[in-house]
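Sanity check record (used in CI):
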Amino acid sequence: MAISTSELKYELPVELAARQPIELTSSRRDGTRLIVGFKNSQKIIDDVFTNFTNYINSGDLLILNNSKTISPIFYAYSDKYGEVKFHIKTKTDLGYVSYIRIREDLKDKIIGENFIVTDEIEVSVNKRTEGDEFLCSFNCSEEDLYNYLLINGEAVKSIYTKKKWSIDYYQNEVANKLGSFENPAASRHFTNKMLNILREKGVRIAYITLNCASVDTKIFEDIIEKHVVFKEYYEIPEETVRLIQETKLNGNKVFAVGTTVIRTLESCNYDNFRITSPLKNYTDLYIHPGHNFKVTDALITNFHGSMTSRLALSAAAIGVDNIMNLYKHAIEEKYLFYEFGDANLLFM
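Expected output for S-adenosylmethionine:tRNA ribosyltransferase-isomerase:
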């Protein structure tokens, strides 16, 4: 049955948008609040994130995204067009898909133009894909480009944050593989201290890598099923494959930390809970209500924007009515939303 996008609409009071990283006020990243929702129940639990350990058992598997965030916004110069703003959306096999902010009448004229980033780095505009998007390439290695952007680039931020925060605030503590152009926000809640407590409890910890594209997730179509999500690259280690199979065969639960992890896990094919499809691939899987989850039992995620594909994914986890009731309750209880906000734990 088709679902109207308006069913995922809510109004957020501006004061409930998180303005700054939680560690600036509580001294610890896992000092956020936690709201718990369920697929087969209207029950909602209000809690704090440090109590997440009470909801996961020995033998369960927690999977995080270890992709490290790169600041994707930078400026480059040419004698003909002056200084131009670039915003890398994602990397593909063909190059870097980037937004370029320039006058409409110049968008087709910059094809083939080289822009100077530094004395050593230049960016070439090779092709216009659509709208403000262009396929670009650089005259340097990926490593040199990413290192430059880590230091000099601007991070993607919510319009509600009070300033441009350092990229360090957007990284999670397990991030070690450069590749994301927007932060996997849910992983921010998990400090190394908390992960050690979980290990001591007998919880298994595993990782995937999904390089987040810097894209707008708003659903503009009237029916959510009509929406198309952007393609993103992922990698899954063999150790994670083994742990997934062992966990499921033992009757334990798989907890996915973030929409990036759950999209990666649900993009794969399984035989007796072992992944049989490529472990390095691109996914454009769009998870919305009606999706039958293959291996994931619970999702840890942040609050998402009204009428977005990420909210549609949360709705797929516990149902449209339940997720919208949970968001209504969260607003009444003054939870904080977006990348520096509080966490959801959703049991499917």
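The two ends are 20 Å apart (CA to CA). If this sentence no longer matches the regenerated tokens, the check is flagged for review.
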